[in-house]
Amino acid sequence: MTRLPRPSPGGHVPDPSRRRARRALAALGAVLLVLLTGQTPAFAAYGQIEGTGSTWSQVIVDQWIADVDANGIKVVYTGGGSSKGRKDFASGTTDFGISEIPYQQTDEYGNADNANGRQFAYLPIVAGGTAFTYHLESGGQLVRDIRLSGETIAKIFTSQITSWADPAIKADNNGRTFPDQPIIPVVRSDGSGTTAQFTTWLDTAQPSIWRAYFGRSGLTSYYPKPSGSRMIGASSSDQVMNTVASDAGNGTIAYVEYSYPINKGYPVVKVLNAAGVYVEPTQYAVAVALTKARINSDPASQNYLTQILDDVYANPDPRSYPLSSYSYMLLPTGSSDPRMTTNKRQSLVDFMFYSLCEGQGKAGAYGYSPLPLNLVQAGFEQVAKLGAADPAVDVSNRDATKCNNPTFVAGDLARNKLAEIAPAPAECDKQGAGPCLGAGQTAGGAGTAGGAASGGGAAAGGGGGAAGGADAAGAGGEVVAGVDDAVTIDPETGLPVGGGGSGGSDVASGSVSTQIARPAGGSVAFGALAAAELLAIVLVPGLLAVRARRAAAL
């Protein structure tokens, strides 16, 4: 039997096509609301998750937390250093931890450094470069564009080179001289993954210098600071950076993740790589360097998915930055973990889905480098364990194929886009040449206040290149996309250059790299407009047909 449409209260029989049109319009409104407000279909509820750990990666983690907050995912992260993150996770006082190194089983003081029986997985979250930022003045101006070899850096941080006028520093800079100012190394006073990364590199790349100073081989999370030395200890990356940037910071040099000097507008050392080129830790240089990273791929190993960086330190590519590495989340995977609930696990799943995908698109601008495909895929393998621990957790449609990641190439995810488009180094950055000097710099080391971005990047408080200064002379690059609304990318810092390249080149000579700019309002607004356009193509003809039938019936 065919069911007839029920008459309306006014006696009219409703047109089924009009009813379908109304439903379609309601669906369109719902889609636009989701896309324009950033709201996603909610689960029963998200549970607030809390973590501590790395300050090396905290800048980008804090940004991701702010991004997902609008979608109802509440994350509290307080930093404190990688050692604290591992200890808090092991004691069960946090839901997750973040660390640059895995559990060492026993720390420097003979204390346990393990998960204390708590089930977990290492989940790669972001890549970056450990930079050497400094504060050196000449004539009242900040000196920029300093170059140092690995040997010179090792001798500075083991108190063998104690003046900025040392002949070794002059040699690294091809005869450029600097003030006879005492060098004051600033090191971490707390248990730090940044220290562990730095000392791992020292032990591998400069073993004779490091081991004579440390007294044994291997890494440490607590930098040894002999009594009576000029070294200053500071807890957290923020405090290290603030010490260098303070009015009393003249002469200081420190190791810290690249994001911190970028945010402060302070210069970083160009480090000599295995190809004989002095390079900064831009997102491109890190991406190139990490193509040589080896990952522990043994699922039975307690260090599964952790990094082996020996080949990164010796990467022969002239574009690579030697001190490049990853950071990890300690992800709770036990089905009976006392801190975990379905809602908390769902928060972790969706927080990491955003961080591994869309969130990686912000890495470069914040001084990090997006993860390559193999680590994103490995990350999702770990995220899936939350669904295995609790079948009520939704882990469907959360994988690398759904990612908008800057390292991915559509249709060929095996390629690393950033490594492919990384600009070639400038001739003046090669050993025995140059040095490349930004605007206002001289062979004598004088700087210009607010000068070039080369050697440090953005002006304080900004996200772009130097305030009104030209970048390094002869900086190389290539055009990777030349479309409307493209923005110029400084090949030195990897950051957008103000003005999008209009009104003259931002690089003294050579071509520049460009990236396609996000549409105004970001990808959410762009997605909304695209969805609206698509739905309009589908719906408008039907709506017009309904109107035509109504007109004919009148």
From TrEMBL:
The keyword Signal does not apply. It holds the Pfam family PBP_like_2. InterPro entries: PBP_domain, Phosphate-bind_PstS, TAT_signal. Residues 491-511 are annotated as: Disordered. CDD domains: PBP2_PstS. The chain crosses the membrane at residues 524-546. It comes from the Bacteria. Residues 44-352 form the PBP domain. Keywords: Membrane, Transmembrane, Transmembrane helix. Belongs to the PstS family. This is Phosphate ABC transporter substrate-binding protein PstS.
